[in-house]
Amino acid sequence: MSRDRSRLAASVGAVQSLQSDLEDALGYAELADEEGDEASLEEARAQLKEIKERAARAELEALLSGEADGNDAFVEINSGAGGTESNDWAGMLLRMYTRWAHAHGMEVEFLEETSGEQAGIKSVTLQVKGTNAYGWLKTEGGVHRLVRISPFDAAAKRHTSFASVWVYPVVDDTIEIEINPADVRTDTYRASGAGGQHVNKTDSAVRLTHIPTGIVVACQNQRSQHQNRDQAWKMLKARLYEAELEKREAAQQALEDQKTDIGWGHQIRSYVLQPYQMVKDLRTEVETSDTQGVLDGDLDQFMGAALAQRVGATRE
Length: 316
Hints:
- By secondary structure, this protein is an alpha+beta fold.
- The chain has helices at about 1-35, 40-60, 85-105, 135, 225-250, 255-260, 290-295, 300-315; strands at about 75-80, 105-115, 120-130, 140-150, 160-170, 185-190, 205-210, 215-220, 265-270, 280, 285-290.
- Strand 9 (about 265-270) and strand 10 form a beta hairpin.
- Helix 1 (about 1-35) runs antiparallel to helix 2.
């Protein structure tokens, strides 16, 4: 209940802020127009454009009413078949989501990472911390396809690479998930990755396998096995909670197709860098030729369209 009140207060505050800023911008524009001050008028136009963009985002955020939409999010990225090519693509996706999160004032914490042999990553697990992190990022779950001239191919041939993204909410203390310890297998191993202060020579990394569901989580970012074990249990609770949410939504076929059908033949988005440049979301048909902007984290247009479509499917 307190979370709902907080969301309502935040929404009211956002609307009041937009209304105040709009009145100020319109007054400024009117004054600039009366004085024939073109520079100030152009500045007012820029302010109005920015307010319009904030209003559009606020409208979408008002739709984030799911049980865990306001929570932080775990994001898993896994490279597909294809070795170095797919590992490099997974690394590009990691950079893309990290930049998106930072652009929206969110924090990113690395929980587990397995580097590729020559480039990129084989897998990585992140925790994205910020308001509505899960609500926005949940629209990104699925397979992402890249087409480009390979920088690793001396013959400069075109290659197609795949990587999967899995998003699930961080489960807070207000949500209870019961797990039978007998159903969980615990493995410890040495942390791996690019190096640094968290990688050591002891078996501090922890992997948990939930035997009934086959769900596997791992954490290696802390120095001690105890800390990694605690974080891994939180991740497992979150994965099981997400699995429960999927069961509840099973009747909503459109949503189910988007969220759980992530086989290699069911990509949600294509990123084409050669022979032309285009990023196209196959669920919403939203596309752009600004491929570099997207790879730099400009994902709002895709997330917004997917969220609107998802909410519409839920209400039908």
